[in-house]
Amino acid sequence: MNWITNYVRPRINSIFSRREMPENLWTKCDACGTMLFHRELTEALNVCTSCGHHMAISPRQRFEALFDGGIFNEVDVPAPVDDPLRFRDQKKYPDRLRAAQKATGEAEAMLVAEGEMGRTPIVAAAQDFSFMGGSMGMYVGNAIIAAAQRAVALKRPLILFSAAGGARMQEGILSLMQMPRTTVAVQMLREAGLPYIVVLTHPTTGGVTASYAMLGDVQIAEPNALICFAGPRVIEQTIREKLPEGFQRAEYLLDHGMLDRVTPRAELRDELIRITRMLLGLTPAVAGDLPAPAAGGDAPATTP
Question: Nearest-CA neighbor of 224 among 94, 97, 52, 65?
Fold first, then answer.
């Protein structure tokens, strides 16, 4: 027996041919169970290529797909008081914030940015449901006010992507106060004659739907998004009746006049470009992805 041939060589080959398989290469669709390759899923904007199920997408990923060339500038948001109620449940509130910041890489549950979409300058804000359920706290209220003020100052429309489980209980009444504050911010846009477009994504619930999420000049939703104040389970337990099929989903609300559009994510950018330019009284833009605007180039007029 040649021990070099029968043992040593196979052992060496196994060491050098061994490859570690990263755990994040595949994602399982929540709806149909299909295993999706991460690169294919990213190109599809986190939409299942098998059944069309819309998975969660971060604000940065959304903005990279929304703005021309994926280029945008973040708008500064005033930081609120840290832990105003000294709230503690199983963890301290600051500990929960730090854990969410580490998991998402974001400072808070809303990102505000400005840039061009189809050569149309806009201001956009998006909630991150993975950050403490996208809950509406003082920072989210400050973010919406900052977005509205920036839009008014630049005379640009505001597009907001909502995704939230409601108010943030760790901030108590201060969280609920963001409902009238954000309503005032929307009124600022109205008085300036600027469009305010809301895209409701899954899920949009609680005090968010009772304030800024349902005040848009145009209400668009992604397919099968849950949009409600109280969830269907709570309603069923309260009224002790079975709810209709698809109750509180985007398509149900569209059929009952609560929405203007239900648009798949892949078509959303072109839809927003058309609606925005129409509301601004501008000529139609070229559909499809556009490169980033040239540095120092003149932006088209946006005064409605």
Answer: 52
Q: Which residue has the tokens 């199983």?
A: 90
Residue type, 233: R
The rounded distance, in Å, linking the Cα atoms of 43 and 33 is: 19
Tens of pLDDT, residue by residue over 122-154, are 999 999 999 999 999 999 999 999 999 999 999
Q: What angle do CA 210, 213, 216 make, to 5 degrees?
A: 115
| The domain made up of 57-280 is a member of CATH 3.40.50.1240 | no
Its pTM stands at: 0.86
Kindly give, in sequence order, each residue whose CB lies less than 8 Å from that of residue 13, ignoring residues fewer than 6 positions away. Answer: none
The segment(s) of the chain belonging to CATH 3.90.226.10 are 57-280
Q: Which residues of 193-204 are buried (b: 16+ CB within 10 A; e: fewer)?
A: ebbbbbbbbbbb
Give the model confidence (pLDDT) of 202-246 as tens digits. Answer: 999 999 999 999 999 999 999 999 999 988 888 988 999 898 989
Using CA atoms, how far apart are residues 159 and 37, in angstroms rounded to an integer? 31
Listing DSSP states for the chain in one string gives --HIIIIIHHHHHHHHH-----TTSEEE-TTT--EEEHHHHHHTTSB-TTT--B----HHHHHHHHSGGG--EEPP-----SSTT--BSSSBHHHHHHHHHHHHSSSSSEEEEEEEETTEEEEEEEE-TTTGGG-B-HHHHHHHHHHHHHHHHHT--EEEEEEE-SB-GGGHHHHHTHHHHHHHHHHHHHHTT--EEEEEEEEE-GGGTTTGGG--SEEEE-TT-BB-SS-HHHHHHHH-SPPPTTTTBHHHHHHTTS-SEE--HHHHHHHHHHHHHHHHTPPPPPPS--PPPPTTPPPPP---
Q: What are phi and psi of 269, to 5 degrees?
A: -60, -50
